[in-house]
Amino acid sequence: MKTYLLCHMLVLASLRATLVDSFSAAGADMIRQELVDHQVRVQNESFVWKPWLDRHTCLPAVDVKFSDVTGETPSGSFVTAHDCSWFNDLSLAAFETARTSSDCVPQGSLFVTITNEYTWELVAFNLQNVKNETCFMNRFLVLNLDEESHAECERTAYIEHCLRYGHTLRASDFKNSDYMAITWIKSKTALVLTRVGLTAFIFDADVLFFRVPDIEAVIATNPSANVFHQIELMDYPALYRSISSLGAGRVNENDYDGISATKLNSGQMLWLPSTTVFEALPLALRYGVETDVLDQDQIERAVTEVRPGGLQPLSYMYVSHCTGHMSVAEHSQNWITYHANCLKGTKNKLTALRHAQASWEALKTRPSESAVIVHAVFAGVLFVGFFCFFTWQRLKRKVRFG
Length: 402
Hints:
By secondary structure, the chain is of the alpha/beta class. The chain has a single domain (about 1-365), classed as Alpha-Beta Complex (Spore Coat Polysaccharide Biosynthesis Protein SpsA, Chain A), CATH 3.90.550. About 50% of the residues lie in helices and about 15% in strands. The protein has helices at about 1-20, 25-40, 80-100, 120-125, 135, 145-155, 180-195, 215-220, 235-245, 275-285, 295-305, 320-325, 330, 345-365, 370-400, and strands spanning about 50, 55-60, 110-115, 140-145, 160-165, 200-205, 205-210, 225-235, 260-270, 310-315, 320, 335-340. It has a seven-stranded mixed β-sheet. It has a three-stranded mixed β-sheet with strand order 7-12-11. It is globular.
């Protein structure tokens, strides 16, 4: 029976991938809904570690074509036997999360972050604006890299879904300690979740949420894309000068014409089940053997190689601190998230995140420019009205007693 369910799950996931790449979004949604409704409950038969020649596979995530990305590597990008076994725990936890009711996250979709004791304070801080949004928290899965963070996760009442990674990865700052291995867990997670037909928004522990991201709105910006990503570097001052010159209250949030916007950042990524993703992620893992190159650079390289049109930047409202810090105090009121990248150490990140939170709160309570104009016009009309009334009264008295 388990074998039948596994085959059924994989057939559905493969069919869904074809639909996403080739046919309508409605058809893909139907397949995703059917897959989630089945609630596949298999144990170690889901992802299986098998020898192949002098290598291994981890089907269905890593087939014989990519058997060279199995085993140990200094960068942590390869899939180990331990990883393959843990993928079963991950897929079951993800299904449990994705099946929970939500009216703000689409069926078959979930949000995922990865943390350890070192970054737990960041996670707790960054959820403050959405932790009471049940529709978001129901679809939010936390992957914990040590016992301390896992215990904190399970003690936190507003977090519904916690999963322990199979072994401990240490506290690490940029390119130090276990940093590279931790970054590659995001790609491995994306590969597993998309392989079982789920859509995953995976984000770093240092991403502050101002509000719940709208996954359907993100996909609608480019229905032919398979991977949506944060932009690392954008000229925010030029962007807002451009918006101001248009004299419009709202503009297309995804229109970067004439504005410098470069580089993929893996700190906020939306992954759709698709053949593009199934090919590109193992390819990125292969390229990841280069220990001095970031995961995000290898992901961009791999997706572009597999399908040049597969990538789509997220809206400018998914902000990178690298350049967003120049505009956070004046323009963050409509932002969705704020990623404290380009900073080392949790202390520096928390300082930037607290500033972003305070700026956003201040702008939320400050009247908008249009509201100020309306108020000024209304006050002017009242002044003119009172002036005319009293002038008329004075003239009446003059005529009566004149």
